[in-house]
Amino acid sequence: MSETLTLSAETRDRVGKGASRALRREGRVPAVIYGNKADPVGIHVNERELMKLLNTGHFMNSVVMVNGERTLPKDVAFDVVTDRPLHVDFLRISEHATVTVQVPIVFTDEEEAPGIKRGGVLNVVRHELELVVDAAEIPDQVEISLKGIEVGESIHISAVALPKGAKSAITDRDFTIATVVAPSALKSTEGDTQTEAAGEAGEAEGE
What are phi and psi of 196, to 5 degrees? Predict the structure, then answer.
């Protein structure tokens, strides 16, 4: 399960671009807490503390206690040049609220995948799954086994054993998560062979 993170914050007295720029110069990041039938509250957090949480790799699918208030990060805006965080949105949630989160996928048992042993390449279509879960039961990751997968075979969401209580947020289709494809060298060789065979057949007809 994803651990609960903690972040201290201070209330913002002023809003607007000028006030936000001033905060960033002081090493603070403007943010807002909203939702759960309460008024939005403008806050600012320490940039170093925020970066430490962002670097955990699971910030976006963790409950974050902001000044004792239970929240879920919904969006982080970054500067396109410096990659520094510019703004964060936090959604207020109750302890057992139903939330939608992006959970990273980890592929296992690669050594037991015949298709990969034969030189196939794992083509990952989705690196995360959008899941609907209890806020107190957010998984760190979803493990998907590659055992028995051959070249040309795909893994669909219907074949994945999701963590207890979790459901896919996408329910209208059996979407593909990954496929084992033939390596480009193999495809190229097969293509050359087919071209040569076609050429030989054409020559035979000409005779």
Answer: -65, -40
